[in-house]
């Protein structure tokens, strides 16, 4: 018989109260749930009177099976117990399900309460639902446009660019996802604008008093506490640091003044002035005469000073950057836009609901909304429904309670027996990782902090971990003690959240030390950056592969709980866990190269696959053959096999115009290549004609048949999966059309939007190796699972914070919807406040996600990260841990940039980590280092030395394995380091010193895929503008591209030209104020441009070209002299002079006026290589005339600079 802990026994047997069970990872919560249900049944409670809510359908199935087994086991003891036999029969129909399934049961039983057609169908196809929602959005847009609604137009203009309205649409669609999880969505929407209502007195508004003021008081009081802690140090009061103390005393008084102004509700502008006065006096210099203790405290004071200044700057930038009048104006304008958004959102909800009703469909959000309406609508029928469930269920048991949303919480409240304590909730707030599904961990926390304080509720904590070895448990505790606190995550991990070791069944001699595999690679030196991105470094994958091979070679022993025996490690014992799935394809490729079996449970890189890229390009080409990139991509694909020299021949014959023109021109040539072009065009025209009269799905299948694409991809590696992917696209196209949508262009746009939103269409990966293969999965997919050996990868990956700097923020609580009004140079106070709150919420969830990842390990935990300049990171981490309190200050946590910022401070504190780090050894190429660190929490400091000696021996073994991986040299390695296609906009940034050498000797700093250098300093007339320098530079080019050099003109005509570009939709009207008209006027009236006025027909602007260039001319490290690269670019302009062509290129680079000559020379060096490439292309394009002059037009300096 299973022996339960005291806390487990309480969770199984206690009743008569609403019970919250806080169950840490591996604490056996599912076992407790099953035992509690069995206990209820054995005491005579029918299973039909229990409602058991699980988070997934798989969990519901498992729960049913485990309860069945328990009842069957009991029937062996009591074979004549008819009640138990009846319960066994009732399990399959018992209310053990997800909340969605329960809600569906409510709707099917009481549909008439909300006047719903009982023959409805459930919209299970997410794609079809998205399409219907998209259709509803388009229809309300059309309605608004027909009304000529200016408020709606202002809203769309605020969030969308010149090209499309995606920004505004995304806002409405994201808001829909939040709104539909609210118990009263209309009330939720109506309250959204209220946070912007400040009246005549900002300080007396609810926004200030209830939101901003408490936040400022807390943040500045925390800063004040840090100052007081420093002033309490004995050394600060000594004679050495008297001036430092004086400075801090003055600064402390200024903080007091600011806090006083806040507390007394002084006028906003006075509070702002008080904050601006919070600064330090003149810096104190360090003296060599000081004691070592004084110097140490002095350095501490300098570090603190820097942090204090940084924090105050952030407060100022968020809440005090302008005076009250402008703050109020921004709020008022934003309020108007939010009211428009609310109206549009209501229309979207109404229209989407109408489209679903027309097809008699309901989706998952409808299930919860309809069920809630049935249970709470104030009608006699509704009361019947509510009373039915309140009478039916004697107890409601909820698994994964930390992930319920607000609507689900209210549904549960509606069916709970009135006046009785019948709720049993199990969860772990430390594992609440579904914020994107509108989960509300605060609902769990509110009960966590209040239950047990009265006779109606009880809180039970299950802390014993029965999953992991003692060392894994200690590692997790050590790392999360400083991270999860009451003010960050809502729980004091040290006091109430720690895992307690409970897995005493593990043998003592198992190898279980946690490991850290770090690679140090400066981002600018990464030879793999473009191939693998910055999310997961290539070297990380190689390190994991090497370590897995080593673990297998060492015959690592794992404990098999099923057989209760040790056995050798199998590949299926290993899991690689990542934060996202974006690098899965790259990991799969490297494992295939290493001949290691890998099973990916959730690849979700559908749109990145070769076959999907190919077919989507063909569809784009059929829709519009005038697009160069899809055309060349399809021609070069295995479907048609045009080679680069052939493409170059087409361009040589037709140097101007797009590539489709070049293709059609060459089709008339009587040659093998001409015939190839004709056959290509014939098939394209056939498919275009077919597309005009047939469905999209039929078109896709016709492409498959005519090109034999399915057969081609089936013959490739992983061919069956590729075939499934293509068939999936066909099925989705059919789904698209069944939803009432038409049009190839619209379908392409829809697929592109799904790709951007990471809504892949992938089918489950086919694999015959899943039984004994390493598992690769995201942390979210790993939740609830466990593995003997776990690698957690990508820990150095930077958190994505784009949403925090976007045009809007959506929250379920407090502020709801906050927006940026783009005509103002500042964020509103509401938006600034929301960004602060959202950042902390996001990082709290990231910390919880990290906790889930680390707690999957049973026996061995291996953390893997690629870190830039780890020595600098060490110093940063060391300064961020408050060692006395064993915590990371809140301000440090909410500024975390990666998971290592949570883990690093504690790692750096460990002496064994710090000493082992000195023994790091190089294992890869020069820019990579392997940091192989063992972190044994059982070791005392004096034992560290011997461990380090052992780690050196292990390091040598790892080095040997890794070196073997790198000994093989691919014969065409050079060609893998760059793409076969380069744009001049990319190449021009790579020329290093072309003045002393000809073009063929120019070098790229790195020949890795499309290497990009950092953006140069912005010119003076582009600084501090709303638009980026690149955007304004593009607009300047645009004006010069279309400027008409004809007739009699004066300077005022430039304004007319600009106005006309705005009217034609070529130029954003908001851009006009940011154009440097002085620079534009200077050029069009310059001596250089005089010839343009005289002979405008000789002027050629924005001339596109494609040129086949020897790779060795661009990349000096190319060993293959025959390798070619197709270069595509656009020449700003050239003029047909009498003796030849004069080439010129506009530049908006900043020119330092204090040292103009040197600055201009530097710019010449920077662009000479680019202009020589243009010269080469123009010379190839023009047989009669060659380039006789090249010039840079420096708009910032007002200079025309000749280039040799």
TrEMBL record:
This is ATP-dependent helicase/nuclease subunit A. ATP binds at residues 23-30. The lineage of its organism: Bacteria, Bacillati, Bacillota, Bacilli, Lactobacillales. It comes from the Bacteria. GO terms for cellular component: cytosol; DNA helicase complex. Gene3D superfamilies: 3.90.320.10, P-loop containing nucleotide triphosphate hydrolases. HAMAP family: AddA (MF_01451). The heterodimer acts as both an ATP-dependent DNA helicase and an ATP-dependent, dual-direction single-stranded exonuclease. Recognizes the chi site generating a DNA molecule suitable for the initiation of homologous recombination. The AddA nuclease domain is required for chi fragment generation; this subunit has the helicase and 3' -> 5' nuclease activities. Residues 2-469 form the UvrD-like helicase ATP-binding domain. Residues 826-887 form a coiled coil. Signal peptide: none annotated. Its cofactor is Mg(2+). Belongs to the helicase family. AddA subfamily. Heterodimer of AddA and AddB/RexB. It catalyses: Couples ATP hydrolysis with the unwinding of duplex DNA by translocating in the 3'-5' direction; ATP + H2O = ADP + phosphate + H(+). GO terms for biological process: double-strand break repair via homologous recombination. InterPro entries: AddA, DNA_helicase_UvrD-like_C, DNA_helicase_UvrD/REP, P-loop_NTPase, PDDEXK-like_dom_sf, Restrct_endonuc-II-like, UvrD-like_ATP-bd. It comes from Lactobacillus gasseri. Residues 497-784 form the UvrD-like helicase C-terminal domain. Its EC number is 3.1.-.-, 5.6.2.4. Pfam families: UvrD-helicase, UvrD_C. The keyword Chloroplast does not apply. One of its GO terms (molecular function) is 3'-5' exonuclease activity. Keywords: ATP-binding, Coiled coil, DNA damage, DNA repair, DNA-binding, Exonuclease, Helicase, Hydrolase, Isomerase, Nuclease, Nucleotide-binding.
